[in-house]
Amino acid sequence: MATALVLEEAGKLSLRDIALTETLGSGDVRISIDTVGICGSDVHYYTYGKIGPFVVRKPMVLGHEAAGVVTERGADVTHLGVGDRVCMEPGIPNPASKASKLGVYNVDPDVQFWATPPVHGCLTPSVVHPAAFTYRLPDNVTMAEGAMVEPFAIGMQATARAKIKPGDVALVTGSGPIGLMCALSALAGGCATVFITDLVEEKLQIAARYENIKPLLIPRDDVSERLKAATEGWGADVVFECAGAAASIQTALDAVAPAGCVVWVGMPVDPVPVDIVLAQSKEIRMETVFRYANMYDRAIALIGSGKVDLKPLISETFGFEESIKAFDRAVEARPTDVKIQIKVSGS
Ligand code: ZN
Q1: CATH 3.40.640.10 fits 154-288, yes or no
Q2: How many angstroms separate the CA atoms of 334 and 317, rounded?
């Protein structure tokens, strides 16, 4: 039995004891959880009890964005040791699956992902995790940053899909946490300038703290015109659509340059019409992303190098005993909040 933040059903959280698997396999490490970030998906499960086909049918521990310290290692683990500061990839594929063999383990239909029903998450003081999906943090990367690697890896995946060339101009639609992760990844990946849109000025002010990220307020600013003005009439080389709204999907297709690329990152709640002829007339490339594969070590390397600073995005940290309060704060969705974290243990 362990204490954990348990989602009992939609709208009902409790911090209570629950039976969790704690057997350490030969390829596993035991990790004392230090920090866990609250993700939009955790909040969605809390509010609605489901995301698409994933329905919370019995009590489930929340949390999947975590960093901690190794406290025990299995007999076959050689690359990690007790005391190592680490962060964990929350999705574990079947290593024998076709997806794993192809290197696209993120789309393995059998992937077991923390806090995706029926799999428990990591908002509990100790977890057992495969060492192959556990990554050591450099000394200069904090636990709070380690817990930000998970959402940052999505931006990394989108940036890799975009095949950015040095000096590209990018547009990100939607300045939520994932939009910001795409913007920072795109800059680190070689973009000269990244424009970012939102309907809410406070969100854009957070984005604008970063050099070379240019905010565009909707509907005040005409996004296509601003992109054209910045690119001698050509348009954005790359667009990361992160809002998942019909209007921003149209904006993405309007603003992208001929032969440019649109990466569909945001997830519309319902199917949305897409202007295929407009896309064809510019012969744009379209890409999609689902989580990430093989991005954690690259993400950690960029954070450790100082090229990407995620610290300004950590809005507030709550103690483990305040976990429910932390979730209620996340539900408020204050425009000035990017990432709310929970400090589970450690110093
Ligand atoms: Zn997440």
Answers
A1: no
A2: 15
The separation between CA 342 and the C-alpha centre of its own chain, rounded to angstroms, equals 16
Which parts of the chain are beta strand (E)? 2-9, 12-18, 28-37, 50-51, 54-55, 60-61, 65-73, 85-88, 91-92, 112-113, 126-130, 134-136, 169-173, 193-198, 213-217, 236-241, 256-264, 285-288, 314-319, 339-343
Please name the residue that has the structure tokens 């990152």.
Answer: 265
Distance CA 134, CA 120 (A): 17
**CB of 82 within 8 A of CB of 70?**
yes
Q: Domain ranges in the chain? A: 2-148+310-343, 154-288
Please give the distance, rounded to the nearest whole angstrom, from the Cα atom of residue 40 to the centre of ligand 1: 7
Nearest to 210 by CA among 186, 235, 239, 234: 186
Domain 2-148+310-343 CATH class label: alpha beta
Distance 151 CA to ligand 1 centre (A): 5
**What tens digit of pLDDT does each residue of 31-84 get?**
999 999 999 999 999 999 999 899 999 999 999 999 999 999 999 999 999 999
Spatial distance between the Cα atoms of 251 and 262, rounded to a whole number of angstroms: 11
Q: 42 C-alpha vs ligand 1 centroid, how far in Å?
A: 8
CA 41 to centroid of ligand 1, rounded, Å: 7
pTM: 0.97
